[in-house]
Amino acid sequence: xxxxxxxxxCFAIGGVPKEVAASATAFFLQIYLLDVAQINAVQASxxxxxxxxxxxxxxxxxxxxxxxxxxxxxxxxxxxxxGCTPFLMVSYFYLWFVPPFISGxxxxxxxxxxxxxxxxxxxxxxxxxxxxxxxxDQRERDSATAYRMTMEVLGTLxxxxxxxxxxxxxxxxxxxxxxxxxxxxxxxxxxxxxxxSLLHSQDYLSHSKEVYMIAxxxxxxxxxxxxVVMFLGVKERDDPYSPKTEKQxxxxxGFILVMRHGPxxxxxxxxxxITVAIQLVxxxxxxxxxxxxxxxxxxxxIVLTILVSAVISIPLWQWFLERFGxxxxxxxxxxxxxxxxxxxxxxxxxxxxxxxAVSSGLSVAASLLxxxxxxPDVVDDFRLANPYSKGHExxxxxxxxxxxxxxxxxxxxxSTLCLEFAGYDTGACxxxxxxxxxxxxxxxAAPVAFIVTGLMILVLYPISEDVRLRNKxxxxxxx
Length: 479
What we know:
The protein has 479 residues and is an all-alpha fold. It folds into two domains: 1-170 and 201-237, MFS general substrate transporter like domains (Growth Hormone, Chain: A, Up-down Bundle), CATH 1.20.1250.20; 250-478, Up-down Bundle (Growth Hormone, Chain: A), CATH 1.20.1250. It contains 18 helices and no strands. The protein has helices at 5-14, 16-35, 41-68, 78-95, 105-129, 138-167, 189-199, 202-233, 251-259, 262-292, 299-324, 326-335, 337-346, 350-385, 393-422, 433-443, 445-458, 465-478. It is globular. It starts with a helix and ends with a helix. Pfam families: MFS_2.
């Protein structure tokens, strides 16, 4: 089942809107909640953690309902993606809207973030499982995954570009009066009150709210266009892995079988830690550039540099994994980021920041491409070990997202709480020394520790290139 270039591109374009929105929220939601919506750090951490945890819980729930879904004229997975898109656009817009009331803002953002996480799950779980219903050929699936990852990294780039360029004016130095630098040296409360009033002036806040809503509206348009392109250009094929005479296994029995499959557990655990590391860097990067490295005027361009490097290097990693194997590519690509994040913490100047950005883009690309390229191999290995079970693709993909998303939610909530305990001052242009030190730990030491742990687990991953090719031959015989 050869896939046309058009089919691969349309499939890949379908993954763009999710990554555009994910990039915008990963880089900017934390600083938006703290400095524009002006909820305190404890409330912000609860929004981030509960929202991520809720999104994680919805993954297996959506996976369960997908396994129960029947086939329609447009497939089994496509109705989920098309049906949830309009509601997803509405929830995303209100996530970036500041309500006129103050006392209930925490409930507002928690509610819309949980709603957004639910709807994005209804889109992403069927989309990621769609890989297994494009073709039975491993090369075709790997090629489609490479196209998908290239477009998703491009979507991450577009999201950061749209959000960063539109909202950059809400976080630059021109909103910070010069005399605020000496705020800590003012001995009377009236001086501090004057500075606070300058920082939180109505003009500044109105401008900040407006630019964030404009960015949200643009990203809504991306959702609509990309979903329509995917719907028109992708043909979903019926389950190609099982004889027509097979009976579908109950969800809970399939879940137990999946959770007992060693390669799946190893791959999920390894990339769980690696994903947490990347999430920590993403969510704290803007805060680090703003308060710990004096790069607030450059952060949006540095983010774009990271993502441009990632987009360019996706084809490189696709060639590398075909030439040397996926496991080797994972080790080489993900290890690359560790010395450079440490370098940025130790030498926080503009030149080093751009060098680190280019180098980090290589690892970001590898961390995005490799798990989604290796997961179909795990599904094939499971299929060979359980030749008379069917319809478990959604379980594999939904629980992989569940574990990684839940761990990322915990890490984001804990990191925001660390800033609160360190004394984070909402809306201030200069943060206390403990906050600066905490940001350096969250950007440098913590991600390195998580990446090392993930790579140590990945050593145990049993599906080598020889095993993968053997599985391919055996599955062809089974079919």
